[in-house]
Amino acid sequence: MNKKFKFLLRLSALALVAGVAAQFYTNYQIDQTISKFPYQLKDQFNITITEKNSDFFTRDLTFSIEEQNGDNTDFMHTKLTALPLMISAESIFNSNLIKQLNEQLNITIDKNTITSQFSVFSDSLSSRVLTEFRDSTNQSQTLESQLSYHTQSKSIELQTELSAFNYDKLLKISELKGEFLLTTVGDNLYDLIKADFKTKKIDINLLDGDDTHFGLVKGHYMLDKKINDQQYDLNQQINQQGIYVSNKNTKSDQDKPRAEDVKLTLKRQNIPSHVTFPEQLRKLQAEQFNLTEMIKQFIDFVFNNQQIETELSINHVVYPKDETNLIDAQNIQIVFSSNHQDRKNAAQTLNLKAKNILFKQDDEYAFTDVSGENKISHLNLENHLAFLTTYLPKSLQTKEVPQKDTPTFLADLEKLAENFQTRLESAVKIQKVSIEDKGLAENVQWNYVGQPTKDVFYSKNNLSLDKIAINQQQMQFGQLKWDFPLEYSSSQGRFYQAYLCKLYHAICSTNLMADSYINLAIKQYSSTPITIPKATLVANVDTYPSATQALPISLDLTAEIPNNNDNISIDDILEQANNTLEQGTLQINGTVPLDFVKAEKPNTEFWQSAVLAVKMFFAEKEDKYQLDANIHQGKLILNGESFAPASETPLQNQSEPNHQD
Fold it and tell me: In terms of pLDDT, which residue wins out, 400 or 618?
């Protein structure tokens, strides 16, 4: 018995020593954790901790938020109970904070339950917060949050679930669930790297007199951030099953304009670490609203990186009115990308696709398999963004034509046009276009290239289609191909000034007086020699809807227009146009088969006019009608016959031709 007692006594002593050691170790772990404060959420605030009362088993802690402007707010009081190798905590939110939240969110917080637990063995902390409150409509709601902290990976996981939320009867959120992951990016410094939250429905009501209502059904938002040493990549995505719009005149769901299966993605690469978008958003608050600042922040948001790609896809868009779908489009996709690692030599692409588009007003227009692409390369993005930042705000705020030019505008426009090297490529493809009871076109393709070189701006338009038909005129073109190259002598800078004013028409027209704007365009016309190397048109012409015989026609044109008047005014433009014809050279050649005139044709305006034109301007040669028209030094030679001056048409002179052998 004595031996057993001694054994138990020794065992108890060992247990006591182990328990005390474990308690000391637990307290040591608490001290180690507290010593790591403050923690910082990047670009947002610091979390600090103050220890007020403590003993061997309990500690009273106060957590505070220190914002970037220096404001400090106590938000939670916690009582820790330290047991061997286990820590439990009871927490309450600061009453002043609860009062502040009630006022700002227009809610009434009834109850907060906070339970926390820390395991020394697993080095993990879990905390559960359950908040019961009443929203602005006095509906009882619950917000449940689960926070997990892993000391090994130093990551924080947060899960939230909100039953619903009504704010001032203007905003209602139903069933919000969110998951967030934060990771350390430095000593006690955390950043959000993943976010994923879903909503069942969001209702937004506007007080605009029409009771406009927006309904967002089943939304899903995702964020993924990859952090490097000095930069980070950010991917964001919004999926919305349905977006609906209604007002007081909407009678049923079928009357609502709607978009179904909407997906918006935004990918930005190599964003500088110092760029903080939460701070940018704070600058754009309503009470601090400034249009210039807003444009700067938007440009910074889009282009303060090295590459961006954004995509918007919509499965179905409907705009109904009076039981008719004015717009009905399916499978729409818009993609914009910009590579501006070198901001003085950027490249941008814009793509548009749609499976079917239907417009219905007086007539019904239907488009099938539509695609478009616009490419810009060798763009000095830095200069263009500086120009937009300076002059776009005034353009958006100006409603009338200015009475005087904006100071420095022309100088800045000249600087933007200097060393212009931007290349533009555009393309449009449409499988079929139909206009109800009026006509159709099939396999339409259009391409454009604008290429500046040292002294010449070269542009070329190409149009091709398999078929275009006009019902009322009973005609159709088949296998039509049209090529139209154009060369502008661009050795003078004002050509590109006028070119840029076409691109930025709204900015030029609101920063220049009407006379200044018109004169800029006229000087570009009057001082820029133009060359058309060889424009061609070939097609088969036939009757419609019944095809009788495809008649091949062809036309080609070359021209040189030596504009050289640098001081022309708007009053002299007609005289200059006449002088240009007298100085320039133009050659047109064409062929039309004999049956175009001699075969029986429908009695429509098109066929009557086309046949008359061939008889008047073409000559019958070698079993076909041929056109040979030349303008040189003010004289028109048509099919070997001379007409002068060139400003008069052959119709005015055909009664007295001057034959030249």
Answer: 618
Cβ distance 499 to 457 under 8 Å? yes
5 forms bridges with which residues in the sheet?
none
Tell me what the mean pLDDT of segment 319-323 comes to. 83
Asked if 477 and 468 count as a contact pair (C-beta separation under 8 A), the reply is: yes
Nearest residue to 216 via CA among 264, 150, 260: 260
Exposure on the CB side of residue 189, measured as CA atoms within 13 A: 5
Task: Give the Cβ contact number of residue 164 at 10 Å.
Answer: 18
pLDDT band at 4 (very low <50, low <70, confident <90, very high): very low
**Residue reference for tokens 């090295």:** 306
This prediction has a pTM of 0.81
CA 474 from centre of chain: 43
> Which among 439, 508, 420 is positioned nearest to 477, based on CA atoms?
439
Q: Which amino acid is at 111?
A: K
- The residues, ordered by sequence, that sit 6+ positions from 413 with a Cβ below 8 Å of its Cβ are 387, 497, 500, 501, 508
Measured between alpha carbons, how far apart are the two ends of the chain, in Å?
148
Closest-CA residue to 628 (of 615, 643, 617): 617
What integer is the mean pLDDT of 439-445?
96
Q: Which residue has the tokens 């060369």?
A: 487
Using CA of residue 7, residue 9, residue 12, residue 14, what is the dihedral sign? Answer: negative
Q: 526-564 pLDDT, tens per residue? A: 677 889 999 999 999 999 988 888 899 999 999 988 865
The three-state secondary structure class of 251 is: coil
β-pair partners for 565: none
| Pairing verdict, β 307-321 and 231-246 | unpaired
